Amino acid sequence: MNCLLPTDFDRHDDVIVGVIANPASGRDIRRLTAKASVFTAAEKANMVQRLLGPFGALGVDRVMIMPDSSGIAATVERSAQINRSRGESVWPLIEQVKMKSTGGVEDSQNAARIMRDAGARAIVVLGGDGTHRVIAKVVPELPMATLSTGTNNVFPDWREATVTGIATALHVTGRIDPSITLRRNKQLRVNLGEYTDIALVDVCVTRLTHVGARAVWDPDTIAELFVAFAEPDAIGLSSIAAMINPLTRDEPRGLCLRCGTEGRRVLAAIAPGVLETVVIDHCEIMQPGVRYAIRTERGSIALDGEREIEFHRGQVPRVTLELNGPPTLDVSSTLAAAARLGVMATPCAREMLR
Amino acid sequence: MNTELNRESLLKAYRMMRTIREFEERVHTDFATGEIPGFVHLYAGEEASATGVCMHLSGNDYIASTHRGHGHCIAKGVDPAGMMAEIWGKETGTCKGKGGSMHIADLSKGMLGANGIVGGGGPLICGTALAAKLRGDKTVGVCFFGDGASNQGTILEAMNLATVWNLPAIFVAENNGYAETTSPNYSVACENIADRAAAFGMPGVIVDGFDFFAVYEAAGEAVKRAREGGGPTLIEVKVSRYYGHFEGDQQKYRAEGEVQKLRNEKDCLMQFRRHVTADGDISAAELDAIDAEVLAMIDDSVVRAKADPKPGPEELLTDVYVSY
Fold this sequence. Notes:
Chain A is an alpha+beta fold.
């Protein structure tokens, strides 16, 4: 290991970081109905490699990466071998998780469980809102460092992977206190009888009775919308709420909107490149812990933009805002603290301004 | 686009999928007797793909199919009785009994043919799509192909050409997990065939091929885009087949219980039936009645096919080459 900073941090065990690059993110119908971005496997592999320099330089010992058949993990492993053979590597040890790939969402979930059980201190996730959601479901307390390679990318950071790599390494090596590095997110829980699921950004009730191609792109099909947060500079369904009542990720409340034919007309970017008008006739603040009944008689429920649940007459799904959602890495706060504390500078350099 | 189907359309979709399934199950059974000549490659399990796409097409639109073409033929409106006679090699067949399973074609229905050439449909569809564009008649061409064909130069060249000429073409990659016996994990240099669309400058989307509604929605958007002059689209339908590459395939490359699990948990007809009956819009009895009608129709088509004459020796050299 060629750590470029003093290694005077907690080293009881190897410092392990998991990396899950979802090869299927950013492939849904919104490539067709909108102009959603396409992240190629090659770019995802590049992003993972841009994490590894900071990891190695800042004391991460091992990186566990999810295997895939699109060549992301294989490309990274090959690059690591080349670097080692040239004797110029400061990358940590790279290992592919030993698991059977199915090509489905369960791959990300299985990999996350294995990483957690192996002692990973954080997982870097490359995906969209949906990828982060399915991982948060199975390892709710394992911090995620988020990188956007999906469609709307409301939940994950839009950020250069190198910077995320630095912040992740500073967190997992304990150089910056977790009270600074981590943010506790809200989440929305949907209950339908025995069935339960979560969303990290929004729950959209549609009048479409089938999950079909999953995405929601026709505003006329939207019946109700619940959001955990609503940022005006985001796209996707939460942007509808944001144009009525912006809500930060830290406020202990959510928002419930019901659509109609008469009410407030809201123009919002519901998909990449797509501005649509939605008519809202009811809006109320969601209080945490309160179960809000869905009023639509039947339809489907989209979690973070993808229809996942069908419900029928006589069934009343309920949505609850929870404040104990998954922890994520706050890259800005972490690096601000690193600068403030001089973590990335030698003592001599720190004296320069005096 | 409103993707909610009315009652009539839902019943039509169910009948189409049930007809394909019943047709294939019967061919599977009868082929084992040794009476059917040639090779057959069955489409059972993939019904939602052909149906979800072809529900958006009119008689003036064209499709090109594969060696596994029965489902595409039925979904495009080719007469199942004529197809059955064709497979039995009888003169009443769609192609007078001279084509057999792998060459069923009916131009009057816009069906350019099943195709023994893997990846052979792409250039054909570029031709019909170019004609449609020149005529300006808003018709489209759909090329069905498999995961094996996705590696063929013809398909890649066709996708390139379709983008260069901005053709009203839809490429439907039915990824059933095996190119004959080879998994795409061994032979396709990307996780998803749809990933390749970006390289050709067209949208590429992935849908669950066991879910009729998923295919129907994606195909609807792609067809609409093509008719409006938006150009080609690649749809990857993730699906599986219930039988071997060909009838007689021992399928030793498949896990034990794989097909039964799919039939039990993902079957497109099972999912469709559960969905449309959940709210009482359509009753199970109505669907049962369709099942019975389809079964009777297939029974009748087999009886007729068996009884019909074979083409005579004087037919040997007719219809073989096109005369201009």
